[in-house]
Amino acid sequence: MATKHLSPELLNERRLEAVRLRLDGHTVARVAQQTGLSAPTVSAAWKAFREGGWEAVPVRQRGRKSGQASSLGEREQHILWRLLAELPSSPLPGWSSQALAEAIAAETGSEVSPRAIEHWLAAQDLKPTPLALAGLARRRSTPGRWYRQQVQPVLERVRQAGGDVWQGGVRVSPLGEQPPDEPRRYQLYLHGKRGALYTRCLPAPPMAEAYLALFERLLAQAVGPVALLFHGAWFQASPEIQAWLKHHPELHLINVAPNLTLGSDPKVR
Amino acid sequence: MTTLTHLQRLEAESIQIMREVVAETENPVMLYSVGKDSAVMLHLARKAFAPSPPPFPLLHVDTRWKFRAMYEFRDRMAEEIGMDLIVHINPEGVEKDINPFTHGSAIHTDVMKTEGLKQALEKYGFDAAFGGARRDEEKSRAKERVFSFRTAAHRWDPKNQRPELWKLYNTRKHKGESIRVFPLSNWTELDIWQYIYLQNIPIVPLYYSAERPVVERDGTLIMVDDERMPLEPGEVPMMRKVRFRTLGCYPLTGAIESEADTLPAIIQEMLLTNTSERQGRVIDHDSAASMEKKKQEGYF
């Protein structure tokens, strides 16, 4: 097994074992064979032992120690919640981590990285992952049939016309039971190119106007037609949305069929 | 000597009650509400009289507002089992188009369920009606006897109930009186689920979690089961993973958010829950002692 796939505990155990074997007089090649480590790793462990004794053999903890990550202060978090409840002032269909970072910098003067905001969104359960559509066309299952019959032809048409394909949905966060003082949030979200997230949060289930604002902004920034796979809303029951769609044929809205187990795209996290 | 498990004891007790009713009454009927308790009761009835079908018909007092999945399940079960299924809808309620939205849950329940049941019992002359109520469901049901006597006007007097010591049931009744019999009285919700699991009893799919279109009404998740459900202006139903712990008229039955889509998962969820299954029933919250009032007036 390659060293990089070993847990730190197991790797340290093997490094210590490698040093013991080297002390017993075994060659680097023989020790590497016995411990499953690579020859350079055995040599590195042996070198560390010679220079610093047994304490120097184990590798140091990988990555940043827990609690050392740059966390957002209370003020920034408060601003984030407030911003997420509004539509962005830019024509974006929802807030991206970049736009949120810029808005915080403009308001507080302090730098917050988009990555820190993405971590914060994930910690608040506000970072849904896009649906795994790749490979669906070849699957002989209900999701596969749904994709071939209802999704693929539309996506091909839109791509041929030079349009964009988006995914999106509406969800409740956090799911399940929550403490009574914690508010329920209804999250509207979109995934653009390479899974980029655009989102906003509402205190109550979104009404038709919230969805229509999202669709209008989506169309406004597009150069061609737009295909949108949307999960979590039952638009057939909304006369307002049906009427709007009739007047905007450039938006191809595809409802993700309920109870389809599509999974999430493992490449986009 | 083998020791019975607690479910086998409950099963034996229920079967004894059913046989007692058939032996002691002239024209019994089984109320079939299509829910999980009805499913268990029907299963027990089939066991009690096997290999013959149970010697009584099924009666469904329909309100026209049950979930579509319940109607499909009801018709399928009646066909599979080969029992007579009587469906009664209060014709006066149909004529006046009584519904939960314009008339409210209290009037809808009174006209379509309570009056409908009384009409059906009188129309067919039934003198005993099995029901799937359990003591753990609700406080007024907890104090009701297994054999619950009703006056000729179908009224229940909770202060005048017969003792049922050592499970000896006194089935004598005056002319015009009838009995409501509850063979599942001593079962709990968990017993029901365990029995359904062990006996592989078919139930309406609505009990399993799935994505369904719902809207929120005063904190309750109501499923939009058909186009009759009026939506607020601009309202868009959300697809949420929900299931039902209890089934009734769809506009009056709250769903719970759940991931439990198998029987073991439902049982596990049951073990962790600390709320009553009827918390999702809007009709139980109409007014204080709501269920007891309804029962006194003849509600099942």
TrEMBL record, chain A:
Q: Pfam families given for it?
A: HTH_28
Protein name from the UniProt record? Helix-turn-helix domain-containing protein
Tell me the ranges covered by the Insertion element IS150 protein InsJ-like helix-turn-helix domain, including all copies. 14-58
InterPro entries recorded for this chain?
A: Homeodomain-like_sf, InsJ-like_HTH
Q: What is the lineage of its organism?
A: Bacteria, Pseudomonadati, Pseudomonadota, Gammaproteobacteria, Oceanospirillales
Give the source species.
Halomonas gemina
UniProtKB/TrEMBL annotation, chain B:
Keyword field contains Phosphoprotein: no
SUPFAM superfamilies in the record: Adenine nucleotide alpha hydrolases-like
Q: Where is the Phosphoadenosine phosphosulphate reductase domain?
A: 27-254
Q: Which InterPro entries match?
A: PAPS_reduct_dom, Rossmann-like_a/b/a_fold, SO4_adenylTrfase_ssu, Sulfate_adenylyltrnsfr_sub2
Kindly state which keywords UniProt assigns to this record, in alphabetical order: ATP-binding, Nucleotide-binding, Nucleotidyltransferase, Transferase
Its pathway, per UniProt, is: Sulfur metabolism; hydrogen sulfide biosynthesis; sulfite from sulfate: step 1/3
Q: Which reaction does it catalyse?
A: sulfate + ATP + H(+) = adenosine 5'-phosphosulfate + diphosphate
Under which name does UniProt file this protein? Sulfate adenylyltransferase subunit 2
Species of origin reads Halomonas gemina
In the UniProt record, the gene name given for this protein reads: cysD
